[in-house]
Amino acid sequence: MAFLPRVCAATALGTVLASAFILPGAAAAKGSAASAPQATIDTGRVSGSAIDGVASFKGIPFAKQPVGELRWRAPQQADGWTGVRPATEFGHDCMQKPFPSDAAPLGATPAEDCLTANVWAPAKAVGNSGRKLPVVVWIYGGGFVNGGSSPAVYDGAAFARQDVVFVSFNYRLGRFGFFAHPALSVEAGAAPTANFGLMDQVAALQWVKRNIGQFGGDPAQVTIMGESAGGLSVLELLASPLTEGLFDKAIIMSGGGRKLMGGMPLHSDDPAVTSAEQVGVNFAAGQGIGGTDAGALAALRKLPAEAVLGGLNLAFRGDPNKQEYVNGPVIDGKLVLSDTDVALRQGRMKIVPTIVGATSWDLGFATARTKDELFAQFGPDAGKARAVFDPAGDKPFEQVSGDVARDRLMIEPAQFVAGEIAEAGVKNGAKAWHYRFAYVAQSMRKEWPGAPHATDIPFFFDTVAAKYGKDLTSADAKAASLFNRYAVNFVKTGNPNGKGLPTWAPYARHGRGVQMLGPDASAASIEDPAADGLELVRALAERSTP
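== Carboxylic ester hydrolase ==
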């Protein structure tokens, strides 16, 4: 996800989806032998490239392209091909308006025909289904309006060099990915609707389950990993009843954990509650399309992609007075049953080994205008909050407001998720591993007082050379190697600890510990320096939760 200021306003799926989601496809095509690495998947044979023992395959269709009559439909089985299909270039990233200060700028042109996947694997493992290597599947962030799988910092080679198969893919964004309309609900019948971007994610995971063995991967050892909206997507996939058997571990990076974005109901009989269907009708009306029947839907599908896009990105969510975008996942009652924090508290979340955390200078949404207004939000704990966040009363309001906003939006919700998983995991042995990423690249230390949102990605991926180029230092490289090894160990075993690494203690519910990935390129399990404030934020969140 793009870096924003710390305080900003801004198995199969199941019988109900069997006809809509990807099913086993065409027999593999025959192709001539080539020096490039090749793999045979269920739609044909693909040819990739290899560098220093790592094979990569890019731009592989995992579904039919969602254009024309397939706009706002569940992903369909990709067409097969004959011969050998080149897979050396990324496909289009999904339709969006790029965000100028994005921390992960796109490497491919956005378009609607974007449902492709990419694989990095040890070259010696490709075509060897007996290898059974662990797999990690990356889900990018971008607020569900930006992002893609092509950025250089999302390269999976560092994982592949350590005998992990790495997969990334694209999913639909904005109104292409999250859109409802009464005619769409009628068309879908008993199948899910509205959450087309999440359906793409499930379809990609189904593709992994069917095909990853051809790249040396083990479909029974799949970790889903995402940051920001990708982290929230991981939570949605954990909570969905339609994702059984598709993964066994999770990594959630700055994905919140309490209500973050989306969460609008598909239908509503209450005139005071705006439904996702009503938002779709609003958008249609703005395009001169009235009615709620199949004719209206046909007209919507004929709109130019730019009209559907409507300029949405991380800096512009549309005219708030018109309410023409649902802002992310919709509670449709099938794929998404509730907000993810509700699913956690009600015991409906899959409990698997999980790494979850945030950055030290993460995002937050400010609402108060003064310190008095800010601390009044803590109710009976107002005095305690003032003593913790502004003990001498001399901190600038912007700093105090930012500290509280960051804790409320990202840091405490990550701790909340870790605690709930730790408690529920007592029954099945699944542990939660909670972290705070505080390392700042040395070239940025004069600009950033802490680690901003999304800056942990190139360190977990060990792609800091692509991110910082000539400004990369030996300390930056050391930090990336350390943090990436934690991620690799976890993908392999469900435990980030390993030989030569500082011990990472598992999290206990309502504990005060955290694994601090420190500013000096170190790592240690310590008492959380923000623990007092986080306890107050947790109490506030629990009082505010119905």
